[in-house]
Amino acid sequence: MQNSDMKKKKRTAMAKGCVTVIKYFLFLFNLFFFIFGALIMGFGLWVLFDNQSFIAVLQESSDTVKVASYILIGVGSLTMAMGFFGCIGAIYEIRCLLGLYFTCLLLILIAQVTAGVLVYFQSDRLKYEMSTIIKEMLTNYTGQNRTTEHTWDNIQRTMKCCGWTGPGNWSENIVIKNSSLNLYSCSCRNGSLAGTEIKPTGLCEHLSQELPVYQMGCVYSVEKWLWDNCGVILGICVGVAVVELLGMILSMCLCKSVVQEDYTKVPKY
Q: What distance in Å separates the CA atoms of residue 232 and residue 239, rounded to the nearest whole number?
């Protein structure tokens, strides 16, 4: 009898130890999700208010980017709230909060997979919409718009590219078409070629027909950047999905181990 009692006590102690380990692992997962949610919300706010990067060019002509930024802010806020309630549910072993946490994680995982599938199958449409927005901006470029146009100038300078598909896109510009001068985009200027002084923005004049500009279109630079960083992007997405799955498994294990909830442990304010 004593041996069987000892074995039961050992099993109970081991079970309690496992529950404690799961509880604090789940707490760490939720802390990670809280931080992750803050990062998503911060990225959404950056997309909404940024006026220095490629995002600003798209945002000026399309509501899609603004909608996407609001979605990111909403998802970030939800993830932060989920992480907070998950931490409370894990530490104080509250089944309803653990169940809510599991459901939210499942919904976020489904939303991520759905978004990935939509982006993959709608990539041609997105590329076409992006191309239309950029070409329209190049056509109406004057050098006076300090947000969109100056951002595009910055992209051409830093990526060492010209136009969307090439320098020929600038031939559709209204100012260049209606001018008797041989004009080109100053930010397209290739510093290694002979020509007039280098200016960061606006339209510059060149005397000869051979323009001192970069010959590669910015679409190829953007695609190259995406391909170069594809492994990092995929790695982050897979890592987040694995963490979410582990969080779901841990929350279910802890939820099943909670036989009776003790709300007296929860601090009252």
A: 10
pLDDT of residue 263: 46
- The values of phi and psi at residue 189, to 5°, are -60, 125
- Residue 184 gets the label, from left (phi > 0), alpha (psi -120 to 50) or beta, of beta
Give the whole-angstrom CA distance, residue 165 versus residue 217.
4
Q: Which residue has the tokens 């992750």?
A: 36
Global confidence as pTM: 0.58
Say if residues 87 and 233 touch (Cβ distance below 8 Å). no
Cβ atoms 115, 251 nearer than 8 A: no
Handedness of CA 256, 257, 260, 263 (dihedral sign): negative
Token pair listed for 30: 């939720």
Which bin fits 223, alpha (ψ -120 to 50), beta or left (φ > 0)? alpha
Among residues 86, 67, 83, 75, the alpha carbon closest in space to that of 41 is found at 75
Residue from 80, 20, 10, 18 nearest 44 by CA: 80
> 3-state DSSP helix/strand/coil percent for the chain, to nearest 5?
75, 5, 25
Nearest by Cα to 32 from 256, 231, 242, 258: 242
Rounded to 10 degrees, the C-alpha dihedral 82/236/50/115 comes to: -70
Angle (CA) 166-59-203 rounded to 5° is: 45
Per residue in 96-140, pLDDT (tens digit) is 877 888 888 888 788 777 877 777 777 777 778 778 888 888 888
Q: Which two tokens stand for residue 235?
A: 């790695």
Lowest mean pLDDT among 1-15, 78-92, 140-154, 168-182: 1-15
